[in-house]
Amino acid sequence: MTSTDGFEIAFDGAPIPCRDGWTIGAALTAAGVRSWRTTREGQRPRGLFCGIGICFDCLVTVNGRPSLRACLVAAAPGDDVRTQHGSGR
Where is the signal peptide (predicted)? Predict the structure, then answer.
C-alpha cells in the first residue's frame, strides 16, 4: 500500500489496510474482521454493534491502552490494535 492509497495498522500482528479519516472499527470491518473483543463472562465474541459509541461492544486495546471504543478512535499509521479479552486489564 502506498502513501497515496492510505496506510496500515496492525491487528493482533496482522497488517490491516486503512484510509485517512477511518476509525479503527471501520478499518477492521472493511478487512472482514467481525470480532475483536471477548466478554468478561463466558468469553463471547463481540465487535462493532451500534457504531456510534453507545454500546461499548467494540472495545479494543490500542498501543497498549485498553478499553478504547474502536468505533470512535481514529486510526493512525502504525497503530498496534489487539483483541481485548474480558476487561482488558
Answer: none
* Domain count for the chain: 1
Domain that holds residue 31: 7-84
| pTM assigned to the model | 0.88
Residue 89, domain member (yes or no): no
The model's pLDDT over 14-70, given as tens digits with 9 standing for 90+, comes to 999 999 999 999 999 999 999 999 888 888 888 999 989 999 999 999 999 999 999
CATH code, 27: 3.10.20.440
User: Is residue 32 in a domain?
Assistant: yes
